[in-house]
Every structure is written in structure tokens, then in C-alpha cells.
Amino acid sequence: MEKDLGREITEIRECYRNGNTKPIAWRRSQLQALRSFLLDYEIQIFRALNLDLGKHYVEAFRDEVGILKKSVNLALKDLKRWSASTKAKLPAIALLSYAELVPEPLGLILVISSWNFPLGLSLEPLIGAIAAGNAVVLKPSEMSPACSSLLANTLPKYLDNQAIKVIEGGPAVGQQLLQQKWDKIFFTGSAKVGRMVMSEAAKNLTPVTLELGGKCPAVLDSLSWSWDKEVAVKRIVGAKYGSCAGQACISIDYVLVEKSFSSTVVELMKAMIRTMYGDNPKESHSVARIINKHHFLRLKNLLTDQKVKDCIVYGGSTDEDSLYIEPTILVDPPLESAIMAEEIFGPLLPIITLDKIEDSIEFINSRPKPLAIYAFTKDEVLRKRMVSETSSGSVVFNDAIIQFAADTLPFGGIGESGFGKYHGKFSFDTFTHYKAVARRSFFTDFWYRFPPWNNHKLELLEDTYGFDYFGLLLVILGLKRSRKTFHVN
Amino acid sequence: MGSEVEKKAVFDTESAKEVVKELRDSFVAGKTKTYEWRRTQLAAMLKMMDENEPQIVAALSDDLSKPELESSIYEIAMLKNSCKLALKEMKHWMMPEKAKTSMTTFPSSAEIVSDPLGVVLIISAWNYPFLLSLDPVVGAIAAGNAIVLKPSEISPATASLLAKLVKKYLDCSCIKVVEGAVPETTALLEQKWDKIMYTGNGRIARIVMAAAAKHLTPVVLELGGKCPVIVDSGINLQVATRRIIAGKWGCNNGQACISPDYIITTKDYAPELVDSFKCELERFYGKNPLESKDLSRIVNSNHFARLLKLLDEDTVSSKIVYGGERDETNLKIAPTILLDVPKDSLIMNEEIFGPLLPIITIDKVEGSFDLINSSGTKPLAAYLFTNNKKLKEKFVEKVSAGGLVVNDTTVHLAEPALPFGGVGDSGMGAYHGKFSFDTFSHKKAVLYRSFAGDAAVRYPPYTAGKLRLMRALLGGSIMGIIRALLGWSKP
């Protein structure tokens, strides 16, 4: 197995070295092929996502397939522009006659994706890597096996097998892959594994992008208009339970509200859950499943502590056989409990009450930096403070999760939530080396660049490097004498 | 006050923790975030240079026997320019960048805000100890961070001068210099930083990145490599030779990450090239280059011994066509040129970082690209001297390096509009100009949505109709949306 892997990587490296992935035509053909795959296999993709995660096909389209189609279309549209060199703006009299930035592929990319958005998180980086002209190995998560094998069995029918490979497997295969030499590693997953990926990458000085997670808070200000309250609660409930049942890195992990507003919020949320999922959400098939028994038990255990159980105001039921957990709301579980200490990654929503909403800033800042902060407020002052006084991958006002679909915004974390970014052109950039290319003519030469050194040359050089053209002229005309004297030699 | 004997305390993990805590407290208190603070620090740095130029030059002379002109221009003047540029542009750099929004998030507005990262660690190198320490600091300050600077112990005079000057001119509660060697650096690397920037060699870079991995700290690594120079025929040979000499021996006597490491030229052209070198080298450094005041010395006896090992290898020493003289007492090696050393020699397999210049000859100049790429590693820079347009194009297409220069060497370093950094073994990340500001910033996406205009399609209960509409919305076509709304498109 290991020898095969080594051989496959060598093959891809050869393919890259031969320059097969660089031509725009190749990149275009691969992106078009990917687009065809998304079109031709849509039903199978929906089926696989339903098998792995119990995702409803509309959710699957909204969160994965639709986004991918949008992304591949954008890449096709802008491919020429992105891969063109850009001139660098030089000052009027410069040492250089011409300078430009030339985008170059990095070479061989390893994309390791996650199980919660198994199509999206595999193919979105792939789109960027292909657009940038790289060869790619994709390792989808073994925890979403239907999607993993769909990709492994079908992508080779559409894409150039010599340059793009899908390698299935678990942690052992992941480890083996990490020991190869890559030009970049793009990892989506947990912070724990992220550390390991970066440590392995360090051995070869391989740059990495780590898309991790965190506890993304939603700050819900006391809104006065009932329309606003409805929309806010709808968006929070939709974001929490409607996107892979809360198993998303940008899911709302917990909500912060003022004590005086909390009961209103709870009532509105209960009503909203019923509207969206009916009285028996399990029957609606609109709430995704928990990925596997391990995570199911992990989530179930978050509720075993009596002190936490007592805080449940809605839901709480679980069904191990179908790996189903009901949309659950809790109010003020103890802050030291596991549910408030770890990333929940499931359909349990703690509501934490504060005396005043401004306290949310300190609450958030006393915890690791999340991938996103959501703030539902019309208060301009609070908004400004949210942006300038907190730190997170991104900030979204009056909505949640939707920043994922905005391809003019960089998507990535900071601190424990990771580093690096992608989506839109940022995907292209993340798999590109911007090579500086400078040209000089033989004509303009600064004779004073060369030894033997003297005061005169020193003055000239200072003025040149300082772009002090007038001073330069004066020195050349002999009207300005060097104020420097040698001290040392 | 009386006389105080300052006892240098041991800088261990505890000390490192305290330093980081103090800086983090300062950062959290918002000290480094204001425009005013950033401006005053940069202005103070300029003042520091204006008032201490002789001392800086003296320290560089102590550490490297660096000629005053090199110190004044390549270290001090370049740093001054960096400060001035940051002072001039910082307000503009700090402004959020508006981002266009599309149908998928309609209605909305968005921007990208540059946030400081927090507390950053800058580890610099010994060859340009002043510039490589403070140039990153300029970027980190402009971006609003708190900073620890760890200068190299191999250039101790500059390191202790930096410690003294930073303490005197800059805000010590937010910017600190920690001197020391391996133990102190290890203690620092154990702490949690928001970013680490390291300038140096690949071996230590791996250690830095591994330490950073434990805390998920992003890194910028400015490393080196064997920077090749391809010399074609049909050029202005005198100018080309001078420019190569300026980039090689004129840059700390070859001890620079972007110094030309070796030359590739054709068998036919080599004799002319060698003659030109002999002529120009003598013109620059005289008949006794060991006595020239215009050449830095080799930094220390370790590196001196390392270079002699490269030079004195059996198959190599016979290839010397110029120079080869050495003065062990003063740690000087004369500008040395070698012709056609074997490919497997030591000198062709590690970064020289010294005044030895091998010339490799091939039949046709077009073969140089394969030769460069055959090493399997990407250098920090690659240079080509030619008047042949096609050759220039092939060079840009085939050679991957941090940066390329045609018809000169090293000058791209001075252009702040160009990102300065490596790729592959020569490093990751880039800086200079606005790139410095960006490298020490977190680009935070901020999306503003209103409560009006809510698309029911996003929410359960899910229906085929919603799917139709969503398809159309994500597909971005107005006609598609209208058709979906009217129920005319397929589910």
C-alpha cells in the first residue's frame, strides 16, 4: 500500500513537472469537467449526502451543490484574469524599468477535507487548486463513506487522472500522505489534527492552510420590531439546525441575549422550530443526522449532567438507532460544563443570558477566537464595537452562515480557528505563488553603485534610494556636498 | 542612585512567559491599535536612525567589517525608506476595503477589515542584522501589533545596540528586544504567538515551524537558496559584470540570501566572462582585495572554516581561475571565481553564502533552465543577463523562484511594490511595502445584512419549488429567477 502511494505521488509529480497542468486550456477543461460532474451526478450526490448525513436534498443543494456550481462558474469566468500577470506600479525614476507579479502554480497540492460538507469541502479547494494550475491529491473523509467513494469512483471519469487523484482512507492513509513532500497542504478539520498536519508539514517546509472551527457565538440584541425579531430568530434557528444539524464549523454554537429578552427569544425559537420542522422534526427529514455513533454519544453526554439537563427548555430527545438528536434549546447551562467549554457541533443550542448586551464583547473575548461572530442588532454603536473590539475569522450582522456563499469575502480563521483563506479569487491566491519579476535595461546605470567607495557616491546613493531626485541633481551638479564623513574605516 | 551593577538574568521559559503576558496585556488594552501609537513609533524609529547612524555603522563594522557605504545604504537608508513609506501610506492601508456582494447574499454590503494579529515574534538574521530586524518590525507596528524582536547572536554588537536603542526610543510596554542564543530562542518559541516571522536557514526554519504548529501559529519564513545567474552572450558585458559583482561581493561579500550564488554560461562565452570579472574585480577592489576596505569580512570562524571546506575540496581547488587567497586572522577570503566545478561537489550542493563564485558552462544557454530546475529546490531569486526577448520569456515561464530579475541582481529588494519572499525551500510568505502590513494583519470579512428582504427559500420546510428558486438564485441569472418564481423551471 505504501509503495503504491509513493508511486502514485511520483506519477503526479512527473505530470506536473512536464507542465501538463499549467496551460489555461487544461485548467479550463478540468473545471468544465467538474461542472459536468456536478450536473450529471446531482441525484447521486444528493443520495450520497442523504446516506452519510441524512441531508435533505434542498439543504444539500443550498449548502454544497449549489455553492460548488457557483464557484466553478466563477472560476471559469475569471480564470483568464486571475492567471494574468499584473504590472507593479513603479515610481517615476526607478532602479527598475519594469516590474510585474506573475502567478505561478505551487506544484503538488494535498487537500484533506472533512465529513460534514464532504462534497463542498473537497471540491471547493480543488476548484481553486486547479484554477491555479496545480496537480492535486484529494483525501476525502472516511467518516462520510458514501461521498468519499462517489468522489473516488466518479471523478476519475471526468478529470485528468494523471494530475488529479482521489485517495480514500482513514487516519493511517492520512498519515502516509502527510509524510510525502507537498508544495501545499489544505486542511479542513479539527484543531487537534490541524496541529499534527502542520507539524508534519514543517518537516518539508510545506506551507499550509488550516480551516478549523470554534464556538461561533450569536449575539442577539433586544430588537423592538416584531418583523426583525421573527427574521432574526428564523435565521438563527435555520443556521443552527438547518445546516447539517449544527455540525458545521460556522454553525451558531451558542446565543447571547439580555436577561430581559431571553424568554421572548425562547418562545419565538420554539415556535420557529415547529414552523420549520413540524411537531415531530424527525419525521420532517429536514434535520440532518449525527454523523456516527461516536459523535452521537459525545453529544448525548453533553446533556447527562443534571445541572445541564435542568436547563433544557425544548427538545432533548435522542434516538441512537437513527443517530437523531432533536433540535434542543437550553438556557444558561453552567459555563464550566462541557457544552460551554467545547465546540458543540450538534443541534444543541445554549442561550446564555447577560445583564446587558454589551457584556457579550467581553464574554466572546475571554474565549478562543472563533471562525465567525454573528451579531443581530440595529445599534450602530454596538456594531462598530463588535467589529473593532473582537477578533474572529469573520463578522456577520443580522444573519448567519451566509458568508460562506459570498465569494468576494475571504473565508478563514484566526488563532484556534485556523489561518489562511479561500473562496472566490482567494482560492486561486491560496494555491498560487506570486513571483516578482523585475527588468532593468543596460542603459541607465548608476555608476555610483560600485566600489571603490567614497563620500560622493554615498550621498548619491542615499538620494537615489530615498527617491530624492532634486537632491540627486544637486549632488551631480556639484551644488550639494556630502555631509557624511567616514568614521569607521 | 549610586552605581548599579546590572546582573544579566537568565532568560528562560518563565521569563519568556512574562514577556508575552506583558505584551498581551498591552495589546488587549488597545495600546498598539491606535493610528497615533503606530505613527509615533515609526517616527521615533526614524529619529533613532537619524541620531545614531555612526553607532549603527560602528556596530555593523564590529560584527561584519561591513563597509560604511553598505551599512548606510543597504541597512539604514533602506530602513528609513520603509518607515517613511509606512508613515505616508499607513492611513490608507488601515482603511477597510469595500467588497462587492452578489445575488447570493442580496441585499447586503461587505468589507474586509485589517485587524492586528496580536503579539508577534520576529527572529532575524546576522548578515543584515539591522535591516532584517527592524524592517519586519516596521510592518508589525504599522499593522498595530505588539512585538518581540530576537536579533541574531552571531552579530552581537548590533543585537545589543538594537536592545539599547529600542528601549530608548520605542514603547517598551509593547515592543521588546530579547537577546540571546539557542536557549533564549527556544524559550521564546515555546510561547503562544499570533505570528512568527523568521529570517535565516532551512534547518532552523523547520524547528520554528514545528514549534509554531503546537499553537497553530502562522509563520513567515524568509530563507535562502542557491540563486543562479544565467549569462547570455550579446550583452553589455561590462555592465553585466559590474552588476553581478555588486550583487555578490558588494552585498556583504556574498553573505546575503539573494546574492548570486553561481553562474551558468555557455562554453564559448565563459572565457570572455572570466576576463571581464578579472578586470572589474581589480578595478573595484584593487590588486590586493584582502586589504580592500570595501569588502565585508566573513562573519565568524565557523563560517570561515565552512567556506574553506568548500574551496579546498580536491576536485574544486584546481578550478580556481581568480582569487582563492585567504587571511585567517582577519577572517577574510578574497573574491574567488571557479570554472566548471563538478556537479556533485560540496560547493554546488549547498548555499555558498560567501565570496566564492562558481561558473558552470553548458553548450547552449537554453539548457540553463533545466539545469536550475534539476536541483529540485526553488531559490529565493534567479537572475538572467540577456538581450534576447525569447530567452527572457522562457526564463520567466520555466524558472520558479521567489523573485526574478532580468539584467541585474538583487535590486528587486529595494522596490516596495514587489513582494519579497521565497517559495518551496526558499520560504513562505512575503513582505516589504504594503505586503509587510498585510502579513502582520488579519483580513477580517465583515458582512452586513438587513432584516428586510428575507428569502424564504433558504429555510425548511424544504420543497421542490424552493429548490427551483435556489438553483436560480445561485445560478445568478435574472431570467432564471423570474422563471423559477413563476414556476416555469424544472425542480
From TrEMBL, chain A:
Aldehyde dehydrogenase domain: residues covered: 16-437
Alphabetical UniProt keywords: NAD, Oxidoreductase
Matching SUPFAM superfamilies: ALDH-like
Active site: 211, 249
Domain of life of the organism encoding this protein: Eukaryota
Organism: Hibiscus trionum
Gene Ontology process terms (BP): aldehyde metabolic process; response to abscisic acid; response to water deprivation
Name the record gives this protein: Aldehyde dehydrogenase
Keyword hit for NAD: yes
UniProt cross-references to Gene3D superfamilies, sorted A to Z: Aldehyde Dehydrogenase, Chain A, domain 1 (3.40.605.10), Aldehyde Dehydrogenase, Chain A, domain 2 (3.40.309.10)
Reactions performed catalytically: an aldehyde + NAD(+) + H2O = a carboxylate + NADH + 2 H(+)
Protein family per UniProt: Belongs to the aldehyde dehydrogenase family.
One GO cellular component term: cytoplasm
Short name of one Pfam family: Aldedh
Family matches, as InterPro entries: Ald_DH/histidinol_DH, Ald_DH_C, Ald_DH_N, Aldehyde_DH_dom, Aldehyde_DH_NAD(P)
UniProtKB/TrEMBL annotation, chain B:
Listed Gene3D superfamilies: Aldehyde Dehydrogenase, Chain A, domain 1, Aldehyde Dehydrogenase, Chain A, domain 2
Origin superkingdom: Eukaryota
Gene Ontology CC annotations of this record: cytoplasm
InterPro entries in UniProt: Ald_DH/histidinol_DH (IPR016161), Ald_DH_C (IPR016163), Ald_DH_N (IPR016162), Aldehyde_DH_dom (IPR015590), Aldehyde_DH_NAD(P) (IPR012394)
Record-level Gene Ontology MF annotations: aldehyde dehydrogenase (NAD+) activity
Gene Ontology annotations of biological process type: aldehyde metabolic process; response to abscisic acid; response to water deprivation
Keywords: NAD, Oxidoreductase
Oxidoreductase listed as a keyword: yes
Record's signal peptide: none
Protein name as it appears in the record: Aldehyde dehydrogenase
Keyword Protease belongs to the record: no
Active-site residues annotated for this sequence: 222, 257
Domain Aldehyde dehydrogenase: 10-446
Family of this protein: Belongs to the aldehyde dehydrogenase family.
Catalyses which reaction(s): an aldehyde + NAD(+) + H2O = a carboxylate + NADH + 2 H(+)
